[in-house]
Design a protein that fits this description.
Helices cover about 50% and strands about 10% of the residues. By secondary structure, it is of the alpha+beta class. The protein has one domain: Cytochrome p450, CATH 1.10.630.10. Strand 1, helix 1 and strand 2 (about 35) form a beta-alpha-beta unit. Helix 8 (about 165-175) crosses helix 9. Its cofactor is heme.
Length: about 400
């Protein structure tokens, strides 16, 4: 039976951790607006072509209101981070959303990232020294991929790094669509909320040189700032978004570059390729997680297909990034590919606020690894790498390496 005639289970499983499901190419070719069944049992509409995904992500009619009564539930437990009441506190659209992005975005400029670079490199060096001391084989995800972004985002928010294990648990519960029960998720949210409430209150008393202190200093809504609850939820959102995605991407990036040792050799021979190599691994990431769900409060059409009011759309940026009509040899890794207009960070007014941070972290990790561990290689065959299951953000369970 072709993909046109069936309702596919979503997320679509893949046979290998770093490879895309074979259905993507078929969907892009013959059924770019497809019906899928989510983990909750509800139906949604899946978009797989580049132009369609880009159009929907940039179209303000497609909203993040996934808690609307007729929206599809992503999972039986309710959909974690996408449809919690916290998601509704940060303005979703219009002038309020732009205002929020302007206030928070000041902390994610290229200039700020350049200033953070030496600190990131030092963290990466220290973490690698510890991994080397423990001896090979090591797990690059646990030793470097996971701790580095947590240290960085904790620095930016003025949060004690020793609390990072709690954050990783809270993030996991908020981003996992299948692993935790509703009561686990509710408890984690309540604990996280309480923690951030106390943290924001402490910053009010004793401001520091960090993002939350700066947001507090602007004043409340009447002064052009954010309300207390918005500052608190912004802190929570940045902690979750700012570490889980990049932590997983570091592991996948290194896994992809070591899967074909020739790619690693190219980087060793020409480290100037680091910037474009990072973009290419972002584009080729076949395991980026759920994709971006959007809710449609009015009817419209995409790619000539009518979408009724109340449709929940899932945008697969990972499939769009392999669209042959946009990328030449789309399934091949080309470390010098430029331009590389991938959609890994979304598009339009909701494109990822932290993309400069993620890019900088990925570049720094690669630079430090190439310099310190040129003999790095996977300690298991590529076929034995395993995905993390259930996460809204895709990742590898471990990245075993030796050197």
């Amino acid at each position: 039976m072709s993909v046109n005639e069936q309702v596919l289970r979503y997320p679509i499983p893949s046979e290998a951790a770093l490879e895309p499901p074979k259905e993507w190419a078929e969907l892009r070719g013959t059924c770019p607006v497809a019906h899928v069944r989510l983990p909750s049992g509800d139906q949604a509409t899946l978009l797989t072509r580049y132009e369609d995904v880009k159009e929907v992500l940039a179209d303000p009619r497609f909203t993040r209101q996934l808690n609307a009564p007729d929206a599809a539930r992503l999972s039986a437990e309710g959909g974690g981070v996408f449809s919690s009441e916290f998601a509704a506190i940060i303005p979703d659209s219009g002038e309020e959303h732009l205002h929020w992005r302007r206030l928070v975005g000041k902390w994610f400029t290229a200039k700020r990232m350049a200033a953070l670079r030496p600190r990131m490199a030092q963290i990466a060096e220290d973490l690698l020294d510890e991994m080397i001391e423990r001896g090979a084989p090591g797990d690059l995800k646990a030793s470097l991929g996971f701790p580095l972004p947590v240290y960085v985002i904790c620095d930016m928010l003025g949060v004690p790094a020793e609390d990072r294990d709690r954050f990783s648990y809270w993030s996991d519960t908020l981003l996992n669509l299948t692993r935790y029960s509703k009561s686990d998720i509710d408890t984690a949210q309540a604990e996280f909320f309480q923690y951030m409430s106390e943290h924001v209150a402490a910053k009010r008393e004793q401001p520091g040189d960090d993002l939350l202190s700066e947001l507090i200093a602007v004043g409340g809504p009447e002064d052009g700032g954010l309300s207390d609850i918005q500052i608190l939820v912004t802190g929570m959102a940045l902690l979750v978004a700012g570490h889980e995605t990049t932590a997983n991407m570091i592991g996948k990036m290194v896994g992809m570059l070591l899967a074909d040792r020739g790619q690693w050799e190219k980087l060793l021979a020409d480290p100037k390729l680091v910037r474009t190599a990072v973009e290419e691994t972002l584009r080729l990431d076949a395991n980026s997680g759920f994709g971006l769900p959007r809710y449609l409060p009015e009817e419209t059409e995409v790619s000539g297909t009518h979408l009724p009011k109340g449709t929940t759309v899932v945008c697969s940026m990972a499939s769009a990034n392999r669209d042959e009509s946009v990328f030449e040899d789309a399934d091949q890794m080309d470390l010098s590919r430029s331009p590389n207009t991938h959609l890994s960070f979304g598009a339009g007014a909701h494109s990822c606020l932290g993309q400069a941070l993620a890019r900088t972290e990925l570049q720094v990790v690669l630079e430090v690894l190439l310099r310190k561990l040129p003999t790095l290689e996977l300690a298991v065959p590529v076929a034995e790498l395993e995905r993390v299951e259930g996460l809204a953000v895709g990742g590898l369970a471990t990245v075993p390496v030796r050197w």
